[in-house]
Fold this protein.
Amino acid sequence: MTVTDSAPPAVGTGGGLVEEEGHRFRVHRSSMTSPEIHALELERVFAHSWLYVGHESEVREPGDYVRRPVGGRPLFMVRAAKSREIRVFHNTCSHRGAVVCRKDSGNAKVFQCFYHAWSFDTEGKLVGVPGRDAYGEGLDFSELGLRPVARMASYRGFVFASYDPDIVELDEYLAGAKEYLDLAADGLGSAEIISGSNQYAIDANWKLLVENSIDGYHAVPTHDTYFKYLVALGTDLSTGVDGVGRSLGNGHAVIDYHAPWGRPVAKWEPMFGEDGREEIARLRADLVERFGEERAARMAETNRNLFVYPNLIINDIMAVTVRTFMPVSADRMEVTAWELAPADEMPQLRQRRLDSFLTFLGPGGFATPDDIEALESCQQGFRSGGIEWNDISRGMARDPHADDEEQMRAFWRRWHEQVSGRDGVGR
């Protein structure tokens, strides 16, 4: 059987797609190619998980809003004018369905549907209906406001939504990922999303980017050019990459390793320039004063590629990148990335942070084009057939290293629970 001319194993239930025995862990390639499995993912994964919407800093003032697709559905997040609370609404008019928020970001007192001019305030209340008298007295307009998502919650400034009203609390859902969100948030202090984003598409299955984002094994062969670039700028890479891969519960995972390069949070290196040395030393001293030497060293000197199930990546490396991705089909995804930084950062450090963000993880940087090429190559290879299974067994016979695959297996186990209908975590 090949994945190109036969149905995947038990596609209706997701059974048989992941197999684990002894020191062998494998995933059926139809999980990356099947339209039926893609449909199951929308129904069973994205509709029953906590999904990242945005950061509180993006809607700082009353009336500030951002719109974006979340789990394949159009939403918008707004800071309500009266309550000053963050609201997340389905971006659809209660009248005839047209989207209500039509710009990606801005500030508004009222959201007016362009189709029939029904208007809603920032609390979601219907406040304007042209020709209202035509509806008589029997229609209860108080029931025709914007619909909030079933659940919305925030952790350390990261705002999540879920379409499942019965999902567990966000705090429980995040499990061990909270520790790494705390490290990122504490290291940045008063954090903000820098205006603007990177948006691009990849002709590959979305789960390949999950794997890639927490895969230390591919770094040296795939990103050889970037490492040579760092060496040319004076970065000492002789110590290599020393760290671990960890499962964090509920499908979340991380690779946590010593940073061989500089980190603007508090680790200077020559590429930051002499004018940044004193400020980075001050930042390091401040971390020590607030958190102690051990935790300060961890925030300053270790990199973390954090995966929050099902589709949020926080790369806390030479910059802090927040990245989400959503399947458009079984073989195509759309990706959006933002940069998170201290709100009061010195201009020269902000410039270095942005340069690091774009140089490595930007769509035209050293790493992202390499990764896109690799993932699209995998998708092309799946079409060849002949081989049915991917092997995800690296490190099963030893304590996990950063270049092993325990963190990927954590994702695949959780994914298989949901797709096969054996979900015991989210609900």
Remarks:
- The chain has eleven helices and 21 strands.
- Residues 367-384 form the longest helix (18 residues).
